[in-house]
Inverse folding.
């Protein structure tokens, strides 16, 4: 027996970065506010898997697929031997472990790709924004969630396997994935370390992370609350989606008493009713002349909820009964559901004061996009 | 011949220059004088008063809001919409050059705001008093 390098540097980096990515993506999946972190680790995971598939052909001896090409049958047979207390020791991946590696790679790929299309459909942004419909996005989301659960189960299976192997063969397998070193028979070839590739990987991953989070760190969220600062400067928000249609006259006329409520937040029939009753606009007379009214109404009807592809538009519109003509966004069912859990004390914050002050909590409210990543209660 | 070219070119340039000017750009004093010609049609008109304007601006007229509810006591400073909280840029022309430069905009807001505060449109006398008062506000 001799102690040699089995896992080269890029393989070890891949392993731990993938583990971190999966764990963080899993933990940040619960809340909309963390979506930008969640998607970052999703992209990272896809990138890592892409790298690993290449490294399986071009990498160190034990990283190559040819060194652990076993059939699922051999894997099962090995599992049975292990469970009956036997089973040979393998220096690289054993037949059962290799199945886990393949399955994790495949599942990771499916989870990543379905996630990409969920984001493209449901949020209409990311690399495939606009390529899939909202409904299709929802189906991808189902697939995304199911495969993510399968992947979690696979991770647990892998951890159990590592624990059993470590105990059976009296060696610390997790540690060897850190140091790369293992005891091996005299004739076993050692792997090359590939330090330069590893360093390059780290550089690429840090650059990607730096680029992704630059905006968020660059400008503290507090300073971006454009509303209090005169409402003129459009808040600078990271991770915004597609730019929604805009109209200078509408912004000027409908944005002087309150922030502008983008047309995509209510259906056309609501805007028609609002303009028809403009002399009783929540207690004030808008007193717009006929020419201006016509331009504003045309813009609002052409970009109303049923004509827009944003998540807010689709969900708000879906929550309004066909015979209802809500004049308030804050009265729609979807809005009520989404804001039910906000504490009474948060509504009373000096910066919030009114439910209609959307921009206090949604940094991109003036743009109408209402992105998950731009949500922030100004406590 | 050359002269004709020269003068016609010059006239063209002047016409184009005038056309490029936004039709509405006026000064607060021009707007005040057009309010004045409107006020003069009412018998007994005796001119505008900044004091009367200030009182009109700062007191309630039987409704929930006064003009200061949104524009604050200090019209040279930023205001805040009383029911929505939205920031309003200063109203006094000394602090905000864009104020009282567009007659249509001025009319629109007088109509809205008088309706909110007084419950009717403002008379030319009242509008002239308010503008005279606002013109006395120093930055």
């Amino acid at each position: 027996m001799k102690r040699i390098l089995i896992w080269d540097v890029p393989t070890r980096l891949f392993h731990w970065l993938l583990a971190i990515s999966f764990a963080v993506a899993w933990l940040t999946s619960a809340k909309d506010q963390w979506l930008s972190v969640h998607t970052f680790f999703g992209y990272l995971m896809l990138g890592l898997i892409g790298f690993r598939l290449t490294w399986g052909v071009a990498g160190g001896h034990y990283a190559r697929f040819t060194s652990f090409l076993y059939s699922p049958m051999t894997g099962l047979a090995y599992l049975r031997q292990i469970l009956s207390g036997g089973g040979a020791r393998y220096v690289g991946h054993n037949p059962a472990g290799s199945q886990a590696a393949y399955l994790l790679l495949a599942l990771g790929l499916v989870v990543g790709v379905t996630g990409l299309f969920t984001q493209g459909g449901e949020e209409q942004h990311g690399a495939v924004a606009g390529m899939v419909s909202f409904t299709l996005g929802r189906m991808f989301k189902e697939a995304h969630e199911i495969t993510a659960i399968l992947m979690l189960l696979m991770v647990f299976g892998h951890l159990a396997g590592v624990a059993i192997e470590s105990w059976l063969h009296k060696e610390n397998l997790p540690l060897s994935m850190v140091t790369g070193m293992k005891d091996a028979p005299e004739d076993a070839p050692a792997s090359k370390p590939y330090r330069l590739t590893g360093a390059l990987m780290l550089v690429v991953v840090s650059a990607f992370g730096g680029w992704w989070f630059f905006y968020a760190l660059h400008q503290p969220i507090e300073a971006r609350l454009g509303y209090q600062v005169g409402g003129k400067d459009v808040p600078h928000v990271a991770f915004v989606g597609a730019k929604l249609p805009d109209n200078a006259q509408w912004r000027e006329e409908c944005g002087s008493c309150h922030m502008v409520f983008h047309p995509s937040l209510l259906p056309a029939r609501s805007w028609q009713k609002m303009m028809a009753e403009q002399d009783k606009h929540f207690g004030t007379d808008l007193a717009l002349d006929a020419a201006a009214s016509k331009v504003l109404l045309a813009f609002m009807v052409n970009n109303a909820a049923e004509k827009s592809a944003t998540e807010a538009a689709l969900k708000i519109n879906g929550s309004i009964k066909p015979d209802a003509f809500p004049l308030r966004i804050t009265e729609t069912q979807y809005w009520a559901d989404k804001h039910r859990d906000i504490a009474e004390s948060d509504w009373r914050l000096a910066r919030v004061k009114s439910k209609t002050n959307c921009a206090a909590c949604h940094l991109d409210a003036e743009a109408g996009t209402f992105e998950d990543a731009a949500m922030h209660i100004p406590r | 011949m050359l002269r004709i070219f020269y003068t016609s070119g010059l006239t063209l340039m002047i016409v184009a220059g005038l056309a490029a000017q936004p039709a509405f750009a006026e000064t607060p004093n021009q707007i005040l004088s057009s309010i004045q010609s409107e006020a003069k049609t009412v018998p007994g008109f005796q001119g505008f008063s900044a004091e009367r304007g200030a009182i009109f601006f700062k007191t309630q007229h039987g409704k929930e809001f006064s003009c200061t509810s949104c524009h604050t006591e200090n019209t040279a400073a930023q205001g805040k919409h009383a029911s929505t909280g939205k920031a309003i840029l200063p109203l006094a022309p000394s602090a905000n050059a864009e104020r009282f430069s567009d007659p249509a905009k001025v009319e629109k807001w007088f109509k809205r705001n008088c309706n909110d505060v007084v419950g009717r449109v403002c008379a030319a006398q009242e509008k002239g008093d308010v503008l005279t008062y606002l013109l006395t506000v120093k930055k």
In short: Chain B has six helices and two strands.
